[in-house]
Amino acid sequence: MTKACVIGWPIKHSRSPMIHGFWLRQHAIEGAYVKCAVEPDTLADFLGNLERDGFSGCNVTVPHKEAAFKLADVVDDAASAVQAANTLWLANGKLHASNTDIFGFMTHLEQSAPGWNERGRPVALLGAGGAARAILYGLNQAGVKEIRLFNRTKSRAEDLKNFYDHGVSVVDWSERHEGLEDCGLVVNTTTLGMDGSPPLDLSLNKLPEDSVVADIVYSPLETPLLAAARQKGRRVVDGLGMLLHQAVPGFERWFGVRPQVTAELRDLIVADLGE
Ligand code: ATR
Q: Model-level pTM greater than 0.90?
C-alpha cells in the first residue's frame, strides 16, 4: 500500500488529508495519506527515515518548507527559484523536492480569470513572505513585465526584489491605494483578512474595472477584500483554489494518477471550513 503524509508544526488544521483522501476514494486506490506532527529539530531525522517508515513522499507545510528544500538531494526549478519545497518524493533512494504552490496559484488564476494577463498590465503584489516569493516567480514565468511590490516592512520587499529583480519595483506600503492604477491584477499574500486578523485596508478606486483581485487567504473564503472587489464588479480569485491545485502534482507522484480538482472536492473542503 502506498503511503504519503503532510508534515508541519503544528499540523492539526491541515486540510491535505481530506483532499488526498477524497482522491484516494474516488480512484479506488489502496493508499493512505496521514498527518504527521514534526518538530523543527526532528525534521532531518523524519525525512531521513521516510523510506524506512513506508512513505513514498510527503507534503511540507509551515514552518518546514525552507528546511525541507535544503535537506533534499534533488530539487526542481520551481523549488530552487523559491528556495522552499512543499512536495517531496523518493526515487532511487534519493529525496526529490518541488514547490507546487506556484503551480497551484497560477492554475487557479488561469481557471478563475482566463485572460487575466491579456493586456500585459502591471501586477500589484501585497506582502513579502514565502507565499509572495512563490507567486512572484509564477508571475514572472507567466510573462508579467512589471510587478509593484508593497509590504509593511519595506526592507523585506527589497530583499525579495534583490532575489528576483525581474521587473519588480518596491513601493511604500502607504502608497498601495494609489499604486493600483493601471494594474490588471492585485494579489494579497499578507495574512490580513484571515480569521482573527484585521481586514486588509485597500481602496480599489484606482483599479481598472476589468482587473482581477486575488487573495491567498481562504479562511474566510470570501475575505473583506474579495467581497469589496466583487461588489465593485471586479473578477475575484479566492485562496482555496491554490490549496486544492497545489495538491495535484504530489498525488500524481505518489499514487500514479493525475487527479482533478472538481466542484465536489471543493464543496467538501468548503463545508469543512464551516462556510
Ligand atoms: P508567508 O510565508 O505565509 O507568506 P509571512 O512570512 O509571515 O507568511 O508573511 C506574512 C505577510 O503578511 C508579510 O508580508 C507581513 O508583512 P511584514 O513583512 O511587514 O511582517 C504581512 N502582514 C502581516 N500582518 C500585517 C499587518 N498588520 N499589516 C501589514 N502587513 C502585514
A: yes
